[in-house]
Model the fold of this input.
Amino acid sequence: MQFSLEHVREMAPDEKSVVAAQKLVSPRLWESPGLSESALWGTCGGGRNYQVRIDLANMGYSCNCPSRKFPCKHVLALMMLLATTPDAIAITESPQWVREWINKRRQREQAKADKEQQPAKPIDAAAQAKRVDERELKVAEGLKQLSVWMDDLIRGGIACLETKPFTFWDDQARRLVDSQAKGLATQIRNLAEIPQSSRDWPQRMMDELGRTRLLMHAYERSDNLSPDLKADVRQLIGWTVSQAELVESGEVVEDDWFIFGQQIKEEDRFRTQRSWAIGRTTQREALLLQFAPGVQGFPESIVPGTIQPGKLIFYPGTVQQRAKFQERTGENDSTFKDYIGGNSVTTFLGEYAERLAQNPWLPTCSCLLSDVTIATEHGAWFVRDSEGNALPLRMQDHYRLLSATGGHSFQLMGEWNGDVFAPMSFLFEGQFQVCS
Done:
């Protein structure tokens, strides 16, 4: 297993943790750091000896320090030490305290797998049906209130929305959360970002309001929809897919999955991690979602620029892109290989149109472009292909991407939301780099 500083930074919970870890990247601060086929370990001195263990099979980690950040600075520092000074780490057999930890992890993983294979406990169908009916009534009431709110908004005109505070949107979103329609609540909060965001914001606002109204109508008539479209609509409203439903109806795809992009967003004291992957053989693209409260670590370690062999199970829907690891069949590998294909802008937009025809509420999708360059015009930035077609860009540092590629063509990977392209990573001269 190989580490790079870029990979370690992507794993860090925040930039402060990276800065703190960099102060510990010195061989003299570590006692007996070691590396084996299955683990990386070491004891960080400096007054208190903190034992750090990293499972190379799935990038799990452990440290006995009192930090509430995951991974802590000691875990990050040990990986940085391996990335910058590999000669300082001895290649040897794992000591007992590391072997015991690894064995416990393997036992827990096996117990979890065995539990999933056991027959499910009998379900109280009557009680379950009652809970579903009660929630359906709450959601219906929430949709009714939202409909009245939207009618009042349209009658009053959208020009006044420029002066509305965030509470105008948040109050309505909270009512939807109380009605157990959290998905709709998120959409309403997203509307708050549209006023004054661009010259054409009134048109964008009307488009989003129209899509929201269409979603409400579709939910009210969900019995007439196809199973896949019904699944899309219910998930957008806020219904979740249970593990049992996922196992029963999800498609399983086995491949070597290259993680080409990742974004972490904080909202309502929770963090959401969005990771995009592509299969080497199938060229199937997948969105891996993880959630964590506060500063806690995410359940699984998913690092951009790494390759994870395994089986993904895809959630039901018309455009199946969300997935989760059902099984990891090999060790995570950070040695980049040319897994990524790419499209021209025209080809991508054609594929995107087909996806929208199936699911008109598709919020984002992955976008992999090849043979593109960065261009600017009238202060706006674009990614342009060899045919001269372009997509508007949204990123923090356009000049960094421009300077890294020197104006030459490269491959660019990221997300498209229908309006702008948000780069996540790029491939230039055989080197994979994460966008800032």
Summary: Residues 126-237 form one domain. The mean pLDDT is 89. The chain has four domains: 5-116, 126-237, 244-328, 345-434. The chain has twelve helices and 16 strands.
